[in-house]
Amino acid sequence: MQRCLVAGLLSLTLVSLGATADNAPAAPAPDYTFTSNVTLASEYIYRGIAQSDNHPAVQGGFDFAHKSGFYVGTWASSISWLNDEGAGSFPMEWDFYGGYKGTIVDDLGFDVGGLEYYYPGTRNAGFVNPDTFELYGGLNYKWASFKYSRSSGNLFGAANSHGSNYFDLTLSPDLGEGWGAVAHVGRQTVAHFSLANYDDWKLGVTKDVGFGSVGLTYTGTNAKGNVGQPYYNAYGNDLGRGRVVLSFTKTM
Fold first, then answer.
1. How would residue 85 be classed by pLDDT, with cut points 50, 70 and 90?
2. CA dihedral in degrees (223, 150, 170, 221; nearest 10)?
């Protein structure tokens, strides 16, 4: 009888401890998060246009986000497109951005901010400064997002192109078991240079392999890439043609 009583008290104690643990308040969310990322890609494609033209790219960045919704970050990648067209010596693209994210209702959120594309290097005479600043605003619902960007100055070295626009619709559903998908369509318009207007699209998958994420995407555009056209470089390559990109990303 005494043994049964002790066993019963022990069981009650364990149940009580379990209930206490289950009912314990969750740890408060941190005031901010800081993350970093590094990517190795078979090629750098941006808005459907080749930035490293058949060459691998090394990329990486840092992001700081406050629980209030404000965030800042920086990201960089190796490039070759400016060198390839004889604009000068520009080995990299270095971006700086900041903005504010919030929730409108339930799963519907918004994101507004600004992004500076900075190209450190030496520019040859006769070429427009490629540095570009864009303001952006977007809406997101679960795994769907729409974003609008507008340049406040010249767009990537195109003369008299301030006020250029980019429209971005992206779907990125979680497929489960570490798999993800991405589908994207976009529209770039270049102010006072209609020949450079084009549409782009992307379709791909990602897989979390534990120590990072592997991605495989196909991108394409209807950009004009013939001789003398905006997306045809000095080496005779069509920078807007369809391409397959393999990448590996590690986020910390």
1. confident
2. 0
